[in-house]
């Protein structure tokens, strides 16, 4: 029996999986991955995330509008999101943040990000943060929102050790995806060395970012096992220990009993 682990950021709500959920859930179970966060990103993704959690055990849900979909986040969507967040499967808000890699208007991104951070503060829900080519602005907005009070994680971390340190100083967690397994990801690997073991999370971000040895293939939730194997080797600890520690961290952050 493989060690048990927790994929803290996955998109079974994506078209890549949604019509064949049992296959991917079964395969994850075979690899010991018995717990997952299904993370929303737009209206349909949010609705599907809830439907998945109502269908399978061990699934937790985060709901939100990611930066690319920020222009769709209007007043009616905010009202709907607020209602959906009352569902018992929900453990947080996300993924939300800023992404300057694509050309989504920055003002719309900031407006949606700020509104969802306010909601997190109001409802006392931890947040999952998507930050791409936008570390300084994400940091400033999290600090201004008082993230220390409701908690959060930088998902699929792509910064360096100094970036990791300033988010740690805000009381946040750092989540590593398959990117940390790539040979050329030296800055991210250096960052992993300075994050205390009780602040590390692991994730797949499936269907994207498959870890070594599946780099370039379609990712899936079970592959968080390979992120753990690789990262544990970097940290010179046993994979089972890293799996147990990151699961405990996830339960603490999302207040899962
Ligand atoms: Zn994601």
Automatic annotation (TrEMBL):
InterPro entries the UniProt entry points to: DNase_TatD-rel_CS, Metal_Hydrolase, TatD-like, TatD/YcfH-like
EC number: 3.1.1.96
Gene3D superfamilies referenced in this protein's UniProt entry, alphabetically: Metal-dependent hydrolases (3.20.20.140)
Organism superkingdom: Bacteria
UniProt KW keywords: Hydrolase, Metal-binding
Pfam families xref list: TatD_DNase
GO MF, one example: D-aminoacyl-tRNA deacylase activity
Name of the protein described by the UniProt record: D-aminoacyl-tRNA deacylase
Organism name: Periweissella fabaria
This protein's encoding gene: dtd3
